[in-house]
Amino acid sequence: MCKGLSSLPSSCLEKAKGMRVKLSHLADAHHKHKVHDGKAFQDMETLLSTKSGLQVFRGFLRSEFSEENLEFWLACEDYRVSPSKTKASSIYGQFINPDAPQEVNLDAETRESLLAVMDSLCADTFDKAQQRIYNLMAKDSFPRFLRSAHCMEAIKEF
């Protein structure tokens, strides 16, 4: 027969209360983390700003053979933070050059304007091209991502 909590020594009761408080804080923190990650899929800007959102979106783009758009966008973000001629040349060679291994879909005008400024680089050299690719992903890839199994599975995990 159970005698209830009153039969336990007070030291055990104090320890149990302390553990309950700690577990409550852990549960709250876990819940807040899940809510934040679940919101990562509401808009593309939020999606790209979270590690988990970026990972799931990258997987989706890989499955659609358009991962180069995200890789280009990320390379431009990195370049903006710490611009260098080496990074600029790498971005141009990897994504913009017509024979690039991961060529992104840019119009001829944007591509030509980038080629013209490759000798006079600055932190915003790739901004126009980056914005075009961002808009392409936001208008085309992101809506399909929201309807995809990748997104549904990720939401279930959170």
Helix and strand topology:
Elements: H1 10-39, H2 44-49, H3 51-63, H4 67-81, H5 85-96, H6 108-117, H7 127-146, H8 149-157
Write a structural description.
22% of the residues are buried. This protein is elongated. α3 (51-63) packs antiparallel against α4 and α4 (67-81) crosses α7. The longest helix is centred in the first third of the chain and has 30 residues, at 10-39. Mean pLDDT is 83; it is low at 27-37. It has eight helices and no strands. 73% of the residues lie in helices and 0% in strands. The two termini are 41 Å apart. By secondary structure, it is mainly alpha-helical.
Assign the structural class, choosing from mainly alpha, mainly beta, alpha/beta, alpha+beta, or little secondary structure. mainly alpha
- Total strands: the figure is 0
Strand content range: under 5%
Number of helical elements: 8
CA(first)-CA(last) distance: 41 Å
C-alpha Rg (nearest Å): 24 Å
Average of the residue pLDDT scores: 83
Major sheet size, sense and barrel closure: none
Elements, N to C (H/E): HHHHHHHH
* Portion in helices: over 70%
Detail the poorly predicted runs: 27-37
The gross shape turns out to be: elongated
What are the defining features of this structure?
73% helix, single chain, mainly alpha, 158 residues
Task: Tell me briefly what this model is.
The chain has helices at residues 10-39, 44-49, 51-63, 67-81, 85-96, 108-117, 127-146, 149-157. With 158 residues, it is an all-alpha fold. α3 (51-63) runs antiparallel to α4 (67-81), α4 packs antiparallel against α5 (85-96) and α4 (67-81) packs across α7.
